[in-house]
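For consistency, the fold was encoded as tokens, which produced the following:
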Amino acid sequence: MEQNPRGGLGQSHRKGFAPNPPELVEQILPRVLVVDDEPNQRTALASMISSWGYETRCAADGEEALVRIDEFKPAVIVTDLMMPRMDGPTLLRRLAGAEGSPPAIMLTAFGSIETAIEMIHDLGAFWFLEKPLQPGALRVLLKRAVEHRRLEDENRRLGRQLSSQGVLGEMVGASAAIREAFLLINQVAPTSATVLITGESGTGKELAARAIHRLSPRSSAPFLALNCAALPETLIESELFGAEKGAFTGAVERRAGCFELAGGGTLLLDEIGDMPLATQAKLLRVLEDRKVRRLGGSKEIAVDVRLIASTNADLPQAIAEGRFREDLFFRLNVFQLHLPPLRSRIEDLVPLCAAMLPELNARHGCTAGAISPAAFATLQAHHWPGNVRELRNALERAVILAGAGEIQPAHLPGFDAGSRGPGPLPAQEGFVDLAVGATIEQAERALIDATLRHTDGNRTRAAAILGISIKTLFNKLKEYESGGRD
């Protein structure tokens, strides 16, 4: 490689370089500002960086760099240490503390390494490289610096969104309880720590896990979620660790497990408290060794996965009852995040409803508008045992029933005054009379008939009130008409 007397890169990297089309450069290429007082050095360096897929601009010293930063808005600065007029350290001091300042990679000659390290500690330089430059090292550093800048930008954007709207990813709320959860998510996301998310069903544990992944350095890699309660014990291990062909009946081909499929990304183990004890022991081994062995396999496979676990169970109680391993709990409980129930942040009903209604209207082709004061009072009075998930279901039914206009109390599912749980019909609409000894089938048919009378035969509204799909309602009515059931 050709070098100039200062130990930098020569002109050879300019040969064969084809610039990207301007329209693509503006849309997709990260921007790098090269700052160096040696013309040949900065031109060659800019050409090489451009050939790696970056858009570049050049500046002869720190003063010119400040002008270029304002107009070019680079993602990263690559700057020499020693320059006339304004050197690298002075440039960093001018940028220090300014919101959105791009990370800087310092280029230093032998003898000024201590100064470069000082710039990292005192002025926040991203890193430094010695001359003569090693292209491979610079290329890796640029990639990391661009990702660092992207995460900083995302965190600032979400921080502004959170402060003004009470929104973090798909999570919504402005109460003190949910804002504390947002703060913890922002703090733990950039780390590699294992997270245990606790909270009642329907509080948004998977949404929190996705927010952590989105704000982490792993955001461009896969996010996988596995519900440990939804799989039988015979299948959960093959889902987690994979299986070789013939490992068990039905294993007709080799299959990678979630740990492999989520490589480089994040794996959420939902309802971890329901995982069988035998699988818990194998999971603990994987977390300690960072290796998995497929069922029926003999080779261990290294895995790089960030683990997030969630549960609505009382794990310490499960440990006391012998249903959960204490050593696995300690391994998972590195950073605990608790999501509050909706009843403890009832003031969040306003932003939650405002966020849900447009999407529900679009999904069902409705134009339901505001929630009437009486309907909102009904929502506020409810205990919400099903939390945000229950609220979403209630609003979805209300949107379907209202169709257009204002949502009224009659559009909401009935809330029984004793249990404060959802009932099949509002109390004022009457009751279903059944004789002692009636069968389940007879009770079901009577309830469906009463609901259809209540909706004046509107089957879509009836299905929404009953909490079943329209297809299920049609199938049941068809059975009644054919005489298949009493």
Notes: The chain has four domains: 11-153, 166-340, 343-423, 429-482. The mean pLDDT is 81. The domain at 166-340 is CATH 3.40.50.300 (Rossmann fold).
